[in-house]
Amino acid sequence: QPSLYLVPTPIGNLSEMTKRGLEILEKVDCIACEDTRNTGKLLQAYNIHKPLVSHHEHNTKESVPKIINALKEGKNVAVVSDAGYPLLSDPGSWLVKECVDQDIPVISLSGCNAALNALVASGLSTEHYLFYGFLDHKSSKRKKELESLASFPYTIIFYEAPHRIEACLQDILEVFSNRKMCLARELTKLHEEYIRGNVEEILSICSTLKGEMVLVIEGNSKKEEVDLNLAISRIEECIESGM
Ligand code: SAM
User: Fold this and answer.
1) Phi, psi (5° rounding) for residue 235?
2) Which of 91, 107, 136, 184 would be 141's cystine partner, CB 3.0–4.6 Å?
3) How many CB atoms lie within 10 A of CB 171?
4) Ligand 1 center from residue 1 Cα (angstroms)
């Protein structure tokens, strides 16, 4: 049965392309990709020649029906993004939803994801975590998003562009206050680095940092503060009822 294959690609180190990923790219009839030049380079490195269909956040209205038609005509299609898993802070979710709605099999392969590399080496709790992806670019909206996460007790993972890292950490410090964190950059690449400390420490050096970055932030470890008014009204209720 023709299927949609979700194929992760390396986040830096080309050796992390899996054997199965390559087998699927060899097998499918076409590859839907974010940037045909980037995917072209990856395929060139492995000597794979396949028709590419451009599928990115600005052309989904045209590309999704085109890919669904190809699947309905009996073609196998692979989806890749520029790096890591498609759909994770990358295009593909509408396409998968359409396949699911139309009973077209969707098969995902194992592989690279920057968030997980950063999380497992961060030194922070991995028992429960939230992958948030990118915060809003505007500080006012970003702070609102952070406020909604401020009491979350588990580790939170953010993606951020290097030119926004300082402003983003400033907002994190303001809304979350100072917490343990790890900034993981250039994962799987030559200059891979994990900077562990607290938000204040990393904020003070982050303007000098370059490359791709993941922020892993400790969850809120403070016990919920008792709502004093609520407690008083409960006591008053008890007294009134003669307890
Ligand atoms: N789909 C990708 C994944 O599964 O990880 C994420 C794509 S998202 C558009 C790009 C963001 O991922 C970057 O801004 C950065 O936060 C993070 N990222 C990707 N590659 C990375 C790397 N090698 N080192 C650190 N962060 C990386």
Assistant:
1) -65, -45
2) 136
3) 19
4) 32
101's CB contacts (< 8 A; 6+ apart) are none
Helix axes 93-101, 60-72, angle to 10 degrees: 40
C-alpha dihedral, 12 to 15 to 16 to 22, nearest 10° = 120
Q: Is 79 close to ligand 1, i.e. is its CB under 6 Å away?
A: no
CA distance 105 to 94: 15
Residue whose CA is at the smallest distance from ligand 1 atom 20: 11
Ligand 1 proximity of 90 Cβ (cutoff 6 Å)? yes
How far is the centre of ligand 1, averaged over its atoms, from the C-alpha of 66 (Å)? 27
pTM of the model: 0.91
d(CA 183, CA 195): 5
Tens of pLDDT, residue by residue over 21-40, are 999 999 999 999 999 999 99
In the chain, where do the E strands start and end?
4-6, 30-33, 52-54, 77-79, 106-108, 129-134, 155-160, 180-185, 193-198, 213-217
Which ligand 1 atom is the nearest neighbour of the CA of 185? 25
Q: Amino acid identity of 102?
A: Q
Q: How far is the CA of 81 from the centre of ligand 1 (A)?
A: 11
